[in-house]
Amino acid sequence: MEREFYQKLVKWKQSSLRKPLVLRGARQVGKTYILMEFAKREYADYVYINFDENPQFASFFDENLDPDRIIKELNIYFKKTIQPSSTLIILDEIQECPQALASLKYFCEKNNQYHLATAGSLLGVKLTKRFPVGKVNFLDLGPLNFFEFLHAIGESDLVFMLEKIQSPKAISEIFHNKLITFLK
Predict the structure, then answer these.
(1) In the chain, what's the furthest Cα-to-Cα distance?
(2) Same domain assignment for residues 114 and 37
(3) 99 and 151 fall within a common domain
(4) Which helix (H) or strand (E) holds 171?
(5) In the predicted structure, residue 42 carries a pLDDT above the cut 90
(6) Does one domain contain both 107 and 157?
(7) Does residue 1 lie in a domain region?
(8) Given this model, what pLDDT does residue 78 score?
(9) Does residue 126 carry a pLDDT above 60?
(10) Domain count of the chain?
(11) Quick check: 101 and 130 in contact, CB under 8 A?
């Protein structure tokens, strides 16, 4: 499924001022889905950690928040070599691990060559005094817009038609009624 938001992720990856990414959004808007698609399309490899499904992953952030140590432990655990610009590290449901959230500051300051993207719900509620203010890039993902919805259900021709019209009066009644059914 294509999302207009995807291009924001590509710009984040290409930015010379890139910091660890915090992807915010309500539950079930597709944060995990879009990060996984982004990782598969834009990177040679990725590491995915979900703190809600696997709370034991929080132990990577218990000892200290040194990015070099964390990367070494991730390499060993996942049996991968995390490459700074070709591996995306995804920390999902990061609100469940405040230490991981705090580590973003050190990834920004000491090891910014690593591409780190996080996702979480209720991040505004879970913010702590150790939140890395100024050391992360924020992006907010919302639900599908109407055009994205139409594409997702196989009605791309309707999107192309809507993009070309000059005024709402230019839509014939039959197409107007069809569009209204999709809004219900």
Answers:
(1) 65
(2) yes
(3) no
(4) none
(5) yes
(6) no
(7) no
(8) 97
(9) no
(10) 2
(11) yes
Instruction: Give the angle 80-83-89 at the CA atoms, nearest 5°.
Output: 75
CATH, residue 52: 3.40.50.300
Q: How many C-beta atoms surround the C-beta of residue 67 within 10 A?
A: 21
Whether the CB-CB separation of 127 and 151 falls below 8 Å is answered with no
Asked whether residue 63 falls in the same domain as residue 95, the answer is yes
Q: How far is CA 112 from CA 19, 33, 103, 107, 120, in A?
A: 7, 24, 12, 5, 21
Q: Which residue is it, tokens 């009066």?
A: 169
Please name the helix (run of DSSP H) or strand (run of DSSP E) that holds residue 138, with its range, or none: strand 137-140
DSSP characters over 5-73: THHHHHHHHH-TT---EEEE--TTSSHHHHHHHHHHHH-SEEEEEETTT-GGGGGGGTS---HHHHHHH
Q: Give the range of the structural domain holding residue 160, as residue numbers without chain letter.
A: 147-183
Same domain, 118 and 152: no
Residue the block writes with tokens 């920004």: 108
Q: Which residue would you say has higher pLDDT here, 168 or 161?
A: 161
Q: What is the DSSP string of 74-136?
A: HHHHHT----TTTEEEEEETGGG-HHHHHHHHHHHHH-TTSEEEEEESSHHHH--TT--TTSS
pTM metric for this prediction: 0.85
**Is the per-residue pLDDT at 123 higher than 60?**
no
Of the two residues 21 and 122, the one the predictor is more confident about is: 21
Q: Which residue has the tokens 């696997």?
A: 54
> What pLDDT does 48 receive?
98
151 shares a domain with 130: no
